[in-house]
Automatic annotation (TrEMBL):
EC number(s) stated in the UniProt entry for this protein: 4.1.2.13
Pathway: Carbohydrate degradation; glycolysis; D-glyceraldehyde 3-phosphate and glycerone phosphate from D-glucose: step 4/4
Protein name: fructose-bisphosphate aldolase
Alphabetized UniProt keyword annotations: Glycolysis, Lyase
Lineage, broadest ranks: Eukaryota, Sar, Stramenopiles, Ochrophyta, PX clade
Protein family: Belongs to the class I fructose-bisphosphate aldolase family.
InterPro entries cross-referenced by the UniProt entry: Aldolase_TIM (IPR013785), FBA_I (IPR000741)
Domain of life according to the entry: Eukaryota
Biased composition regions of type Basic and acidic residues, renumbered to the chain: 369-380
Residue ranges of coiled coil: none
PANTHER family reported for this sequence: FRUCTOSE-BISPHOSPHATE ALDOLASE
Molecular function GO labels: fructose-bisphosphate aldolase activity
């Protein structure tokens, strides 16, 4: 039975049964040797990618493309979950099987993007908060009925040291927003993935990226605590720590990324959280895999169980899709090859979760990336 608001409008505490269900979803998603496919791009975002590949951004093309991503028969060996956009939740594959059922049949949990995109903060328009809170509880209950068991909500933080960004106000507003989202998702039976994405756009050094990440994660876990969120029934989706895309020293080495990412997580993520699932953030497909692998190898060498209690895996969007889209080209005759590519990318990253990735990488080219400089706010 899902929670209703009390007469005073407040959320009653979760029952033990509700907590058990939320925690077991989080634990299933955090299964070692598996990760999460993020195929939840909103219509404008997927539109940019489809249009760049010469395809039309209509509902049927989006359905056919999502079918490619979810069709591999062994996908459940490498993916514990897949995050869908709400439109996809209500669509079916070409045999008429609803996508949540397609995933269930393969042992993959269905997730859903529950945010409604970004809006500029009045007075600091290069910073954003995330939209969709007013309808979140009702929508989340509906998504649960459609088969979703976990949710994702993306907040973004921009670094621009010269302009004084991020502001304290933006960090606070986004932390509180993520905490409210997490509490409402749990009330609806959905395990929340909390995503405070620190944008890669900018000239910042990896060290500044790490410093900002610590501030942001500190604020987020403080707000989750204030909101009474049950941490065992949550997951974190952060960015790996690296240089800004326009930094003079453009590419941080994988070793530095692993070191700073692990240090940041160690300092700020409570052990009660079962899993940390990195976003790919516009890295090339191969870089994302190599970095995930090195993070897990480094953690293992440092006594993973003691210092890093969470599963560290992937919740990649672009790094699991760029080559798939290139192979598919929207053509029926490329379906099988594109499905193989989707499976190959998922498998490579599942191996990297175990710190056992040896290559060669299945992507078309090492620089296959869908980096998009406008992933902060854009008009809806
Ligand atoms: O801008 P949108 O449409 O909300 O999409 C944001 C995308 O960012 C992610 O949160 C992370 O994706 P990447 O791995 O491509 O960085 C995806 O889950 C999601 O599809």
């Amino acid at each position: 039975m899902l929670v209703e608001f009390g007469e005073d409008g407040a959320l009653p505490p979760l029952s033990e049964e509700q907590k058990d269900a939320l925690a077991s979803t989080a634990q299933a998603l955090a299964t070692r040797g598996k990760g999460i496919l993020a195929a939840d791009e909103s219509t404008p975002t997927i539109g940019k990618r489809l249009e760049a590949a010469g395809l039309t951004n209509d509902a049927e093309t989006r359905r056919r493309y999502r079918e490619v991503l979810l069709a591999h028969p062994q996908i459940g060996e490498w993916l514990a979950g897949a995050i869908l956009f709400e439109e996809t939740l209500g669509q079916a594959n070409s045999d008429g099987v609803a996508f949540p059922q397609v995933l269930k049949d393969k042992g993959v949990l269905t997730g859903v993007k529950t945010d409604k995109g970004l809006a500029p903060i009045p007075g600091s328009p290069r910073e954003t908060t995330t939209r969709g809170m007013d309808t979140l509880l009702a929508r989340s209950k509906g998504y649960y009925q459609q088969g979703a068991r976990f949710a994702k909500w993306r907040a973004t933080i921009r670094i621009d040291a010269e302009a004084g960004l991020p502001t304290r106000g933006a960090i606070h507003a986004n932390a509180v927003g993520l905490a409210r989202y997490a509490a409402l998702s749990q009330a609806a039976g959905l395990t929340p993935i909390v995503e405070p994405e620190i944008l890669i756009e900018g000239t910042h050094s990896p060290e500044l990226f790490a410093e900002v990440s610590e501030r942001v994660l500190g604020a987020v876990y403080g707000a989750l605590s204030e909101a009474g969120v049950f941490l065992e029934g949550t997951l974190l989706k952060p960015q790996m720590i690296m240089a800004g895309v326009d930094a003079p020293e453009k590419k941080a080495s994988s070793a530095l990324t692993a070191e700073l990412t692990l240090r940041t997580l160690r300092r700020r993520v409570p052990p009660a959280v079962p899993g940390v699932f990195f976003l790919s953030g516009g890295q090339s497909e191969e870089d994302a895999t190599v970095n995930l692998d090195l993070i897990n190898r480094t953690a293992a060498a440092e006594d993973a169980g003691r210092r890093y209690p969470w599963t560290m895996s992937f919740s990649f969007g672009r790094s699991l899709q760029a080559s798939v889209l290139k192979v598919w080209e929207g053509k029926a005759e490329n379906f099988d090859a594109a499905v193989e590519m989707a499976g190959g990318l998922a498998k490579a990253n599942a191996t990297a979760q175990l710190g056992q990735y040896e290559g060669p990488h299945p992507s078309i080219s090492g620089d296959s990336s869908l980096h998009d400089p406008n992933r902060g706010w854009r008009p809806a």
